[in-house]
Design a protein that fits this description.
The chain is of the alpha/beta class and 367 residues long. It has 2 domains: 74 residues, 2-Layer Sandwich (Copper Amine Oxidase, Chain A, domain 1), CATH 3.30.457; 196 residues, Aminopeptidase. 34% of the residues lie in helices and 20% in strands. It is built from 11 helices and 15 strands. Strands 11-8-12-15-13-14 form a 6-stranded mixed β-sheet, sandwiched between helices. A 5-stranded antiparallel β-sheet has the order 1-2-3-4-5. Strands 6-7 form a two-stranded antiparallel sheet. A hairpin with a 4-residue loop joins strand 9 and strand 10. Helix 6 packs across helix 11. The longest helix is centred in the N-terminal third of the chain and has 20 residues. The N terminus is likely disordered.
Length: 367
């Protein structure tokens, strides 16, 4: 028998067996499961980092939400925190552009970009704005020495005597401020308050000297000379205010501007900003002015225009601490009516007397 015809038959049997094996390995999907299963994800056509020749970057885990941390006060060299530390005080950032410097019972509040500060609730005008520098918000060197230091350290007033010189401003041919509708002259009010204050102080055993006892003109240079010849412990100049802005009102107290510093009503240092005899008492001048201003505002409930600095002639040549007080505005309709009453002027004198008595030494030369 010829074996050649068997080869095609064997090949067909082999192919049939392979096909049967392949069919038996396929799984028929359950219709219910197929409906619930999502369609398979299509293959990504984006090149992987490995294909681009770069290392894959780790995916940062999502951090859990945390409560915001309290703001930490920076303490850069030259910043207000560092300035406070130099005086043994602590600076705090209160937010909204407000800072606070505390030491013992004193608190000075500062506002970013402003010359207005507050010492224990009483307005104090800085020489320069509390501004941002390379090391953070800080006071100028002038304000560090002449505002922050005396404000926080509260210097004691070491006075040479219990003699008080009162200076009724203006007089004679110089009427000062005038309210024509009320026919009120500042020079008369200044003298009236000074005489009331003299009586109150002398009742407490204080020797009082006035630069004028009646309506006469005393040159400015003579007023400080009277204080120096009297061996004065304190010098207080009494005034009333006026302004073109008829809405201006309130009380303000002035101390002598320190050498090289900007006066409160100026924007820069002008001529004549050198050292004067009165600058030997810069710290005491600040403390005296602060005591007078804070007491007057509290006692009389008037607008606080602040403790300010100026180079008034009557303050420059003093050999003792001194201050000039503006007790109200004659240019303000309602305030002029108020200060024109004897009752109000008596309250002014009583408030000034309390500040002066609290500043005098217990024991000193009384002659």
């Amino acid at each position: 028998m010829n074996p050649a015809p068997r080869k095609p038959i064997r090949l067909l049997i082999l192919l049939a067996g392979v096909a049967s094996f392949i069919v038996s390995c396929q799984t028929i999907p359950d219709p219910e499961i197929a409906e619930e299963s999502p369609d398979p994800e299509p293959e990504s056509t984006v090149a992987t980092p490995a294909e681009l020749g770069t290392e894959p970057k780790p995916v940062a885990p999502v951090a859990p939400t945390k409560e915001p941390k309290p703001k930490i006060v920076r303490k850069p060299a030259g910043g207000i925190a560092n300035q406070a530390e130099r005086l043994g005080a602590v600076a705090k950032d209160l937010g909204d552009g407000v800072w606070q410097v505390e030491k013992a019972s004193r608190t000075l509040e500062l506002r970013e970009g402003s010359r207005n500060a507050s010492l224990d609730g009483t307005v104090v005008i800085l020489h320069e704005p509390f501004d941002l520098g390379k090391d953070g918000f800080a006071l100028s060197e002038s304000d560090f020495e002449n505002t922050l230091r005396p404000a926080i350290e509260a210097p004691s007033l070491k006075l040479r005597s219990r003699v008080v010189v009162l200076d009724p401003g203006h007089g004679g041919a110089e009427p000062g401020s005038v309210n024509q509708s009320l026919n009120v002259l500042e020079k008369d009010l200044n003298l009236d308050v000074s005489l009331r204050l003299q009586e109150l102080l002398e009742a407490k055993g204080v020797k009082v000297v006035l630069t004028r006892y009646n309506d006469r003109l005393v040159p400015l240079e003579d007023r400080s000379e009277i204080a120096n010849r009297s061996n004065a412990g304190l010098f207080i100049s009494i005034h009333f205010n006026s302004a073109r802005n008829i809405e201006a009102s309130g009380i303000e107290t002035f101390a002598l501007t320190p050498a090289g510093a900007v006066s409160s009503n100026d924007s820069q240092v002008g001529e004549g900003s050198g050292q004067f005899p009165g600058n030997a008492f810069d710290a005491a001048n600040f403390e005296l002015g602060f005591r007078i201003q804070s007491r007057l505002v509290d006692d009389l409930q008037r607008i606080d225009r602040g403790l300010k600095r100026a180079r008034f002639k009557v303050l420059k040549d003093l050999e003792c601490p001194g201050a000039l007080v503006e007790c109200g505005f004659l240019s303000h309709g309602k305030e002029a009516l108020l200060v024109n009453t004897p009752v109000y002027r008596q309250k002014l004198a009583e408030s000034l007397a309390e500040s002066i008595l609290a500043s005098l030494p217990e024991e000193a030369n009384k002659t």
